[in-house]
Design a protein that fits this description.
The protein is an alpha+beta fold. It has one domain (about 10-95, about 120-170): Histidine kinase-like ATPase, C-terminal domain (Heat Shock Protein 90). It has helices at about 20-35, 40-60, 100-105, 115-120, 160-170, and strands at about 10-15, 65-75, 80-90, 105-110, 110, 125-130, 135-140. Strands 1-2-3-7-6 form a 5-stranded antiparallel β-sheet, with helices on one face. Strands 4-5 form a two-stranded antiparallel sheet. Helix 1 (about 20-35) runs antiparallel to helix 5 (about 160-170). The longest helix is centred in the first third of the chain and has 22 residues, at about 40-60. Bound molecules: adenosine-5'-diphosphate (ADP) and magnesium ion (MG). Magnesium ion (MG) binds near residues 56, 57 and 115.
Length: about 170
């Protein structure tokens, strides 16, 4: 999976994950951006929880990572779809035995591993690429409605409140 923003995407924030505090900040930013993009409170918590699980994994098992928040826009044959996307990327050792983790049969030190499985339950989709040179996890959630009709001067999307999201994250 490329970290390059795909066509029709606006990068909102790129942040390092180098400490426990960064992981907490990442969780908070996910919730703030989700709120700015129109998700209700329950959805904000679901997204923040999923992002936090994946960000914490990357920091814990790889030592350091980056988290990037994007707003993507695609057109299907019938409608336009916008999604809030988080990409967490690390250059750690990779996830051993991902199939057993996804099957719910992987035993961690504290019992069955639940972080990745919970993230999958909480989001529309969680896509994982992992190997000896690192792990990239992409979490997608479709926006409840098309965001603000105000035209934004600083991003490629025709309709977004990118400027507002950025100012919230500073
Ligand atoms: N970014 C990562 N890099 C390397 N290994 C990882 C990463 N994320 C997860 N893992 C591995 O996958 C396992 C399952 O992760 P998870 O489902 O979050 O459960 P837990 O963290 O509670 O063990 C972890 O125990 C760890 O071995
Ligand atoms: Mg975990």
């Amino acid at each position: 999976m490329s970290l390059d923003a795909p066509y029709g995407s606006a990068r909102l924030v790129l942040m390092p994950l180098q400490s426990e505090q960064d992981v907490v900040l990442c969780r908070n930013r996910a919730r703030i951006i989700a709120a700015a993009l129109g998700f209700d409170r329950q959805q904000q918590v679901r997204i923040a929880t999923a992002v936090s699980e994946i960000a914490r994994n990357a920091f814990r098992y790889a030592g350091s990572a980056t988290a990037e928040f994007l707003l993507t826009s695609n057109r299907t044959s019938t409608r336009r779809k916008q999604s809030f996307v988080t990409v967490v990327h690390d250059q750690g050792p990779g996830i051993p035995d991902l199939p057993s983790i996804l099957a719910g049969t992987h035993q961690g030190v504290t019992g069955v591993a639940m972080g990745i499985l919970s993230a999958k339950r909480l989001m529309d989709s969680v896509h994982i690429e992992t190997g000896a040179s690192g792990t990239t996890v992409r979490l997608d959630q479709e926006l409840p409605r098309i965001v603000s009709r105000r035209k934004c001067s600083s991003c490629p999307l025709p309709l977004c409140n990118y400027g507002r999201v950025l100012s919230l994250c500073r």
